[in-house]
Design goal:
Elements lengths: L13 H13 L4 H10 L6 H23 L9 E11 L2 E10 L4 E7 L4 H15 L4 E4 L3 H9 L6 E3 L5 H16 L6 H18 L8 H15 L6
Parallel strand pairs: 1-4, 4-5
Antiparallel strand pairs: 1-2, 2-3
Helix pairs in contact: 1-3, 2-3, 3-7, 4-5
Length: 234
Amino acid sequence: MTKRSPFKYFKTSPEIIRLAVMLYVRFPLSLRNVEDLLHERGIDVSHETVRYWWHRFGPMFASEIRRRHIGGLKFSRWQWHLDEVFVKINGERHYLWRAVDHEGEVLESYVTKTRDKKAALKFLKKAMRKHGRPEVIVTDKLRSYGAALREIGAGNRQETGRWLNNRAENSHLPFRRRERAMLRFRRMRTLQKFAFVHASVLNHFNSERSLTSRSTFKRNRAAALAEWRLLCSA
C-alpha cells in the first residue's frame, strides 16, 4: 500500500513548503522576512501561511530527519554535555534542558517550569530512554544534576569543570538567535515543539565547517540540502 503524501491537499508545491520551513527554522528570520524572501523569488504567500506550514510540517520533517539519522547516533553514547537555559514565556521564567553529544549534535530538548532534581530526573530519563546511557556526562555545578544522576545510578559518570561544558553552552547560541527573531514564546507547548524542530534541522545542516576542508564542506552541504528536498516525499 502506497503511503499518502502529506502535501496531497495543498495547492502549493512541496518544494516551496520545504523551502519556507527551512528558511524560517534554520535562519534567524521572522515570518515576514521569509514572506519577503519568497516574494523576491516570485512566490506570493503570506506570513500566516508560513506560520501554518512550519506548525504543520516542521515536526513531520524533524521526525523524518531523526529516523534517517538514527544509525549515526550510536557514537553519541560516549560523552554527553548537559545544560539548561532560561526562556521567558509570557514574562514567566521556564527552563530549556538540552543534551548535546561530543560533536555538537543536539540529542534531546525538554522544557520545564523549574530546574530542581525532579525536572533534571525527567529530562535524563527521557534522553536515556531514546539514546541509551553515555559513558561520560559533563554538566555544570547545578546540584540537581548530581542528585538526579545518583538516583539513577550514574553518579560516577558525572564530570564538572570550568570549561568542560562549553560544547553545550555554545549549542544554545543558534537557538537564542532564533528566539530573538521570534520575539519569544507564548506557550510551553510551542516552545517544546520549536526546540525539537530547530534541533533536528540544526543537526541536519551542521557540517562542522571549521574542522573540514572547503571541498568537503561543500559536498556535505550539497548532500544535506538534497536530502532535505526529499523529506516526506511520497
